[in-house]
Amino acid sequence: MSLDVRQAAEIRSSPRPRRELTTAFVVSRIAVLGVAAAILLYAVPPLVAAESWVSLTLLGLASAVIGYLYLTRRFVPAKYLVPGTVFLIAFQVFPVLYTVSTAFTNFGDGHRGDKAAAITAIETGSVRQAPGSPEYGLSAALKDDALVFLLVDPKTKQVQAGTAGGLTPVQGARLGVTGKVLEAPGYTVLKTQEAAARAKQIAELAVPTDGGLIKANGLSRAVEGRAALAYDAACDCVKGNGDTWKADESQGYFVNAKGEHLAQGWQVNVGVANFARVVTDPTLSAHFLGMFTWNVAFALLSVLATFALGMSVALALHHPRMRGTRIYRIALILPYAMPAFAMLLVWRDMFNRDFGLINNLFGLDVDWMGGMVSAKAAVILVNLWLGFPYMFLVTTGALQAIPRELTEAASIDGAPPSYAFRKVTLPLLLVALSPLLISSFAFNFNNYNAIALTTDGGPFPAESPTVGGTDLLISYTVRLAFGTGSAQFGLAATMSVFIFAIVATISAITFRRTRKQEDMYA
Length: 522
Description:
Layout: H1 3-13, H2 16-49, H3 53-70, H4 76-102, H5 115-125, E1 127-129, E2 135-143, E3 146-152, E4 159-163, E5 166-169, E6 174-175, E7 181-183, E8 188-189, H6 192-197, H7 199-204, E9 206-208, E10 213-216, E11 221-227, E12 230-232, E13 237-240, E14 243-248, E15 253-255, H8 273-280, H9 282-285, H10 288-318, H11 325-337, H12 340-350, H13 357-362, H14 372-400, H15 404-412, H16 417-445, H17 448-452, H18 473-482, H19 489-521
Antiparallel strand pairs: 1-11, 2-3, 2-8, 2-11, 3-4, 4-5, 6-7, 9-10, 10-11, 12-13, 13-14, 14-15
């Protein structure tokens, strides 16, 4: 028996691999059980407080299944499948389902809560101080982690605690020179910096009284006023200021006879209204075809250009006579190693017309970001610089897997190098890299950073100030949903569903064609 064979036999008979496998299995089991226990301990108190018994039951059953699964020696495959399945559901399935469900709602600014929260916001937001109404010294405090107003009557120096439930007398409070509460038994008085951090909560809190509502006026004063608008349950409407707004459940608004609605609404299911708006609204549909064409061209040119350049460099360094390949590879990887967002900002400044490096270096006077064609060319050039190192890496790995005997056989048969590349090397590369090319297309189709950090969608024509010449569907969706001063999550989710459907369709068609190619060269 030779030495190599004897060493291999000793390694196979050694118990070390089995011991290492057992140790790794025990560590992974402890890790999974620890994470499950942590989630259970963290989630149970809020679910009990919210009386969400269905969710609590599901959580208990899931924890019991995980405990049984990892405390027994049976079901070994399931021990590895369960974590992956959980992460798949949590980070893939649930976000997709949540996005689709949001697309059927009017969720957004003014429609974030339910109807009761909207009524409360309307009434408290209309509170106005009446002449001669009481004023109080205000100190914000916490009790059981809940925000409380400590109100001091300037005449009687009586201290009361104000919450959304009303007023409660406070005994034993210590006042400062300015009349503010410094200490109160059972309350944690917030310092000025702490109160400023909760300014939004302080402004939203309204304390009901017999005469109206007490609201904060700054951080040190509170006033009692009356709500100009009040909800009437008999007519399901809001009355005040000589007008009436009736509830429209289809829109989630209170609307008056003139068709005007109050700013605060509530979240409702609007069905396919968002989808119909995307198709029929001239603001959305008028530029869809041109934007979609550019979107496909941008993604396709980015993939083809980066693949062509990366493959060319990889083929050059793969040549047997090439020397110093390590140095070249390190230099070529630098763009891939640098943060993409930082490089995009650098390239944006390099394309500046007045002080940009490109114009100064070549003696040009091109307004790169001001013209439609030049801006698109600049974006594709930047994406080429950022993306070709990745293609160089994957192509280098794929070339290592292609036997040199195939190309050598082609050259022996008298085939020129170009013929051997087209008939042997390139088809085998495409078989190996087709999934990566498809995923790269999907990534560039939604490459928001490449547009937002370089051209911000511009240039914008005078007749269409909301749709830029380099806008992708995703950048236009972000501007449409969040660039108008208010967030329209429902509309953004609808556009996301459209984009997902487009990318999924293109990817499915491409995968089917690449599968035929794989069968041909299998």
